[in-house]
TrEMBL record:
<dbReference type="GO" id="GO:0005506">
    <property type="term" value="F:iron ion binding"/>
</dbReference>
<keyword id="KW-0001">2Fe-2S</keyword>
<dbReference type="GO" id="GO:0016705">
    <property type="term" value="F:oxidoreductase activity, acting on paired donors, with incorporation or reduction of molecular oxygen"/>
</dbReference>
<dbReference type="GO" id="GO:0004497">
    <property type="term" value="F:monooxygenase activity"/>
</dbReference>
<dbReference type="Pfam" id="PF00848">
    <property type="entry name" value="Ring_hydroxyl_A"/>
</dbReference>
<dbReference type="InterPro" id="IPR015879">
    <property type="entry name" value="Ring_hydroxy_dOase_asu_C_dom"/>
</dbReference>
<feature type="domain" description="Rieske">
    <location>
        <begin position="47"/>
        <end position="161"/>
    </location>
</feature>
<dbReference type="InterPro" id="IPR036922">
    <property type="entry name" value="Rieske_2Fe-2S_sf"/>
</dbReference>
<dbReference type="InterPro" id="IPR001663">
    <property type="entry name" value="Rng_hydr_dOase-A"/>
</dbReference>
<dbReference type="GO" id="GO:0051537">
    <property type="term" value="F:2 iron, 2 sulfur cluster binding"/>
</dbReference>
<keyword id="KW-0411">Iron-sulfur</keyword>
<keyword id="KW-0479">Metal-binding</keyword>
<dbReference type="Pfam" id="PF00355">
    <property type="entry name" value="Rieske"/>
</dbReference>
<keyword id="KW-0560">Oxidoreductase</keyword>
<keyword id="KW-0408">Iron</keyword>
<dbReference type="InterPro" id="IPR017941">
    <property type="entry name" value="Rieske_2Fe-2S"/>
</dbReference>
<protein>
    <submittedName>
        <fullName>(2Fe-2S) ferredoxin</fullName>
    </submittedName>
</protein>
């Protein structure tokens, strides 16, 4: 059990309009012991968005993902449903799949001694299996010696997995978070995210702690400084003081802006269900611990973070469009370029910050200005989880 000191003042003064409030101390962003506590108490306990279901189209298609300290396989079964398992052979523990993704031919076969599992995880075959017994002399149970299952839910077209023995409520923690941010349970349904197609995917290997990426996404104090293209499209983001509204309320496109594109030109075909009050607006939602959803009238930008180490996070970003737009080969470059550039600008800022986390100058942390005060709730949440 790790003992973690919180260098913030025990009783932080109540924040008012002009108050600076303390952040987490630098150790939270670079100490491997804290990262391990986060893996244990956050990533291995909560619902974690693992993979796009459509990437696993046919039976046997799999994706290997890192969830906390575990390697997890998400696999399309023969019945068409997705399953998830720990990527560990029940014989002597060899990793079943070492590739990040692929398709197996009917079974998952361990390359070490050839124990073979059905796509539903049951042990199907092993050399001399018929003549083997367990310690009590009973025949080997194909379920008991099957792969260890992991809870899985599909929502918005993604497979979300949870390693907890008793997973928390998906409806409350995931669906409820999105509904609360949008102020309406049906608002996200209008975008039909599950039925959209991936028009583009970019994977970023970011040399920064996962929390720096979340904190950056939660505030727009930086927008005027580093996002010239974004603030052209969303002029209110140029106002650092108004920018606390970045999350949730739906930022209005500029008057001359025709679409959410790099040059403000018109986008592609709009998503049919988007309502009049969602038109010409940008919504951003953070779903702890590893997802950002950004909604605009003609596409959805879906970020998944995979924390790999205290100072490294892989971010996979999907640009999702109406399927017909992708199938017809419409030009997506102008809309992809806008948020790709935002991503690069944001991740550069996070990488610029990461090395300073171990500096003595940041041992007691930094400060949050008023438009960033809501990040304090995230810090309190992390600190509570880490201290256990
Ligand atoms: S470790 Fe997998 S078959 Fe032996
Ligand atoms: Fe940003």
């Amino acid at each position: 059990m790790t003992t973690i000191d919180d260098p913030r003042p025990a009783a932080a003064p109540a924040a008012n309009a002009g108050t600076l409030v303390p952040t987490l101390g630098g150790q939270y962003y670079c100490d491997p012991a804290i990262f391990e506590a986060e893996q244990d108490r956050i990533f291995e306990q909560m619902w974690f968005c693992a993979a796009r279901g459509a990437d696993l189209a046919s039976p046997g298609a799999f994706r290997k993902v890192q969830v906390g300290r575990e390697s997890v396989l998400v696999v399309r079964g023969r019945d068409g449903a997705l399953n998830a398992f720990l990527n560990v052979c029940r014989h002597r523990g060899a990793m079943l799949c070492t590739e990040d993704a692929g398709t197996v031919n009917r079974h998952l076969r361990c390359p070490y001694h050839a124990w073979t599992y059905d796509l539903d995880g049951k042990l199907k075959a092993a050399p001399n299996l018929g003549s083997l017994t367990d310690a009590n002399g009973a025949r080997i149970s194909r379920t008991e010696y099957g792969l260890v299952p992991v809870a899985l839910r599909e929502w918005l077209g993604y497979a979300w997995v949870c390693l907890a023995d008793e997973p928390p409520s998906f409806e409350t923690d995931v669906v409820g978070t999105v509904s609360a941010r949008l102020g309406d349970a049906d608002a996200v349904e209008n975008y039909g995210v599950g039925g959209l197609s991936v028009g583009r995917r970019v994977v970023y290997d970011v040399k920064a702690n996962w929390k720096l990426i979340i904190e950056n996404f939660m505030e727009c104090y930086h927008c005027a400084t580093i996002h010239p293209e974004l603030t052209e499209v969303l002029p209110e983001f140029a106002d650092g003081l108004a920018a606390q509204y970045f999350v949730g309320h739906g930022a209005l496109f500029g008057e001359q802006v025709q679409g959410f594109t790099i040059d403000g030109s018109a986008g592609v075909d709009p998503i049919p269900g988007v309502s009049a009050d969602q038109d010409r607006r940008y919504y951003a939602i953070t779903v702890r611990p590893n997802v950002f959803v950004s909604l605009v009238p003609d596409h959805v930008i879906f970020h998944r973070m995979y924390p790999m180490a205290a100072d490294r996070t892989i971010v996979e970003c999907d640009w999702l469009y109406v399927p017909d737009v992708v199938e017809r080969g419409m030009d997506l470059d102008r809309s992809v370029e806008l948020f790709h550039r935002v991503n690069v600008q944001d991740f550069d800022a996070c990488e610029r910050t990461q090395p300073a986390m171990s500096s003595r100058a940041y041992r007691a942390g930094g400060v949050l200005v008023p438009s960033e005060h809501h990040i304090g709730d995230f810090h309190d949440w992390v600190a509570d989880k880490v201290r256990g």
